[in-house]
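Continuing from the previous page...

OK, I double-checked the sequence for Peroxisomal membrane protein PMP34 isoform X3 against my notes and this is the correct one:
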Amino acid sequence: MASVLSYESLVHAVAGAVGSMTAMTVFFPLDTARLRLQGVVNVLLTTPLWVVNTRLKLQGAKFRNEDIVPTNYNGIIDAFHQIIRDEGILALWNGTFPSLLLVFNPAIQFMFYEGLKRQLLKKRMKLSSLDVFIIGAIAKAIATTVTYPLQTVQSILRFGHHRLNPENRTLGSLRNILYLLHQRVRRFGIMGLYKGLEAKLLQTALTAALMFLVYEKLTAATFTVMGLKSAHKR
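Thanks. Re-ran it with the corrected sequence; updated structure tokens here:
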């Protein structure tokens, strides 16, 4: 026992800890890049499914815009076939660029959630379930409101049947995103960028609030089982 608690063992323990911290600090950017890359891969793999999903949802809808051509798909397979045949395979990735930018939505959500939680913990020792639910909903509402114009453009690009910037036919390019935002504002005003926001907020804010509530309860339960101090307490 004495050899385990000797000065030499302490030196090795400290050296190992310092080495581990140094390695983690040096390679942490690579871990961050890995997580970002996973998000990019997820967007690239799922965008074709979202494109088809969006078009099937809007099939049969009546549009006031005469530039939009009605679609007629007989299911998922037929939708994939018609899109590739009539618009080319790259049309399945319409809206990819806005989707990549929307990866920042969860980052904004967690930033505001943690900030609001810290502010509340300065005034009380512990957060109630209602506190967690409310600040979770507020954080998601802010993130959704900030990024909603991009979601609007994303939906337009996924639907595909619209008039693009004649100077640049590349779907989803930054120039076309700015062009579509400008056209939307010019035609409907600034609020045209937020059409349907109420329904989106109701869906996302309540979902996020419930997610944070379950997350905090599970975290507190884990701390209790492990005999650690809860993150909700000072």
